[in-house]
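Fill in residues.
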């Protein structure tokens, strides 16, 4: 995990400090899910801190941060395939890729991970963390994204399409967290 933290910090801390704060908050959420993630906890932890690395200005090739970040991790760091696939597909990125005309590219290079729990866990971590790295609810986070980008923007259209599945993923993780509690 320290390798992932070093990469994310190097790419985001100076150029995009607010994005770095968000990434740190998402990583903190991932740490809370270690018991739920089981053997996938290290993969979730690395993916959480790295999920937005593609926003770094020097990495923005396509302008679609999940794809740019995953390519960077694969090509420059030889990152584990599970990590790159989670970064590429985080928070229902496939729907945004469709809006951008990049769905086929994303699917070809980084197929959706097979471990639904890890996919849901990363959605949970990202969508329950504010841009400043603080905990929030998924509903507040979706509203914040729509407010920041505008309902009719590409991101606004994407997040509204993704909204039901975001809430479903968060609910599945919360249920798994409840099941993981000692009785």
């Amino acid at each position: 995990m320290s390798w992932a933290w070093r990469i994310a910090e190097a790419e985001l801390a100076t150029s995009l400090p607010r994005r770095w704060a968000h990434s740190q908050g998402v990583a903190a959420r991932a740490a809370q899910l270690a018991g739920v993630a089981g053997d996938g906890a290290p993969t979730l932890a690395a993916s959480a801190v790295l999920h937005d690395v593609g926003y770094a200005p020097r990495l923005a090739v396509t302008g679609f941060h999940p794809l740019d970040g995953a390519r960077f991790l694969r090509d420059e760091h030889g990152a584990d395939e599970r990590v790159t696939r989670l970064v590429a597909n985080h928070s229902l990125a496939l729907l945004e890729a469709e809006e951008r005309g990049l769905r086929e590219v994303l699917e070809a290079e980084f197929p959706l991970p097979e471990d639904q729990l890890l996919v849901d866990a990363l959605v949970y971590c990202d969508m329950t963390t504010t841009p400043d790295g603080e905990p929030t609810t998924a509903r507040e986070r979706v509203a914040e994204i729509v407010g920041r980008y505008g309902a009719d923007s590409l991101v606004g259209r994407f997040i509204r399409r993704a909204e039901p599945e975001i809430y479903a993923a968060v609910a599945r993780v919360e249920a798994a967290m409840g099941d993981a509690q000692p009785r």
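The mean pLDDT is 95.
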